[in-house]
Amino acid sequence: MAADIQVVPSATTVLVVDDLPVVRLSLRHILQHEGFQVMEAGSAGEARAALQAKPVQLVLSDIEMPGGESGLELVKSLEHRIPELAFVMVTAMDDTSLALDCIQHGAFGYVVKPFQPREIIVQVRGALRRRLLEIEFQDREKVLARKVREQTEEIRSSREEVALRLLSACEYRDFETGAHVRRIGLYSAEMARLLGWDDDRVDCIRAAAPLHDIGKIGVPDSVLLKPGDLSDEEWVLMRQHTTKGAAILKGSSVPFIQMGARIAACHHEKWDGTGYPSGLAGSRIPVEARITAIVDVYDALVHKRHYKDPWPEELALEFMRKRAGSHLDPDLFSLFDTHLERFRAIRMANPDEREPDFAAVWSE
């Protein structure tokens, strides 16, 4: 495609910059003979004014301009506009080092005085062609970047859809609202960002954390939906939702489902080792499960459940602070507490759509 790029002189405006009128006149005649549109400026200041007044594709500038800015200074000041604006420098025989300096700052070429008309045209056409090639390359990069963004968003959406379909399939959203599930994913992703995780890992936990209670599909309704306190035998059945969830999700080659299995298995483990099902303690509990535990407790406390009214946020935080270091990872909870406004914003932006019909069972 690059081979098809053609310079069209009639659609190209060249700004000639030189303090000597006779040189500007000579360059004008050469360029106009080839069909180029030509503007003139006698100094760097005049050149900048001309560039603001009308679109220009190339500046053909002398380097040494007595009594003001040099051509090199002009190039440096307009370097941010390359390759939108191409530069070709005109220099005396002993100024080639300055010409090379201009090229280092983005000029596309230079011509040594005294010049021949053919030299001017070759350099101008070459600079304009390079300009078009670089613009095309930048355009392709933008298209590629947009496609990468679109594909990334498609992957993210697919992860979230799979997670929500898994939850919907087990009628999970009948006893915990869809907004709660969504919030758990968003809270967890925010925690991951605060920890400096890369984008892919953040996306994984956003999709994986909502799967934390998927094992409740294996808990009998008589236990899961019981309006009163559970007996010791019923608590044994309830606590099995962790291992059942891990079993549902195990064996996958998909990273977010693998993470979901770890979260399902370990989100009721406690920092001090008194949790279930395995009695893991401290850093032996997967970090994604420790994150999910914090945000799940927070969300359960500050929202209405059939067995309780929502707690005031400060009361919920006081409850959680007392359990940092025993139930909850103290460092992660400190991070959560320090950046509470971010999690509050997520909560406010994702309210429950309706009152839940059944309780989301949670136990400290």
Descriptive notes:
This protein is of the alpha/beta class and 364 residues long. It is built from 15 helices and five strands. The chain folds into two domains: 2-142, Response regulator (Rossmann fold, 3-Layer(aba) Sandwich), CATH 3.40.50; 170-349, Hypothetical protein af1432. It has a five-stranded parallel beta sheet, sandwiched between helices. Helix 11 packs across helix 12 (287-302) and helix 12 (287-302) packs antiparallel against helix 13 (313-323).
Main beta sheet: strand number and arrangement?
5 strands, parallel
CATH architecture of the largest domain: Orthogonal Bundle
Task: Give the rounded overall mean pLDDT.
Answer: 85
Tally of separate helices: 15
User: Care to count the β-strands?
Assistant: 5
What's the overall geometry?
A: rod-shaped
Strand arrangement within the widest β-sheet reads 2-1-3-4-5
Strand content: 5-15%
Write the H/E string, N to C.
EHEHEHEHEHHHHHHHHHHH
